[in-house]
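Interim report to the steering committee. The following record documents the input for Alkanal monooxygenase alpha chain (355 residues).
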Amino acid sequence: MKFGIVFFPTVGPADKPAQQYFDEALRLVDLAEELGFDHVKMVEHYFFSYGGYSPDPVTFLAAAAGRTRRVRLGTSATIPAFQHPVKLAGKLAMLDNISGGRVDAAFGRAFLPDEFKAFGISIDESKDRFVEGVEAIKRLWSEEDVVFDGRFHRFGPVTLLPRPVQEPHPPVFVTTARSAESCAEAGRDGHNLQTVPNVMSTEELQNRLALYRAEWAASGRAPGTEQIHFSYPCVVAEDGEEARAKGRHDDDRNSAAIRDAVASWGTTRSEAYPGYEKLVEATRTSHFESKMEQQKLLIGAPEQVRAQLEQIAEWFGDDITISLGVHSGHLSFEDAATTMRLMAEQVIPKLGEGA
């Protein structure tokens, strides 16, 4: 397993000023570099405390690039539907140059009706816009004199500058939360996979991974060359009860943030998002204890979290990469730093050693 950190702020001005949150997050980037973590990532969301402090992950990652030399820099994920592909391809190529070729580019469809409404884009078009946007970006990165004639964007001939450092382009990840077909398509298209285990059962996720890996191999690609990233909220403390109390508070605040963000699904229906109207009720019935029982959260003393990770490896394979959500903003910088240090010093080195 490889480990990195992912920033998904769920705070707003009433909780913590944005300037303070970013200062703390960038100091944690420094710590990730120091402790040998594999990557740092940042999400893209708008308006709500649920991710709203991060409308442009590339801006944050550019700041992170200037403070680091080794750690990889990932979007988690950026949304092609909300930007022109020439603009997004250029921003990510520029970041790849600034960072010396350390970008992992994850793309997602988005799922919040209020975000689509603000951009004046039909939520029913999200999948088609996603597919077209990713195709255009990959071509802009890897080809010259690109002529693109899509449903939503037409341009060319153009040659993107700067060219990415990584050839033929930065690793491309597809971020999917619920769709089995999205996993299959990612495998067929040779895209890496990024997902959140919290939103499905263990059996559902196992089935999706099996489908993804089968499609990857069927497309002629070598098994085991794909990258699979999972994201888990994580709180570790020397005392397990202290970690649990802090983790419960963090999860309660995160759950409240997503409840507000998905409220418009109560009155929104889209064939592109079957079953998403159930999100409103699902967020009301989400409980900390059940998440802990199902290994949806990495919370506890070092030996407890190590046992959780070994169970996760048994379920899904030990070749996956784990992105640790260490700082949503509701706990202190010191709490997040403690989690990272204990993971690096007492959890990760001891994986596989047994009790």
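The chain has a mean pLDDT of 95. The committee is asked to note this result when reviewing the revised timeline.
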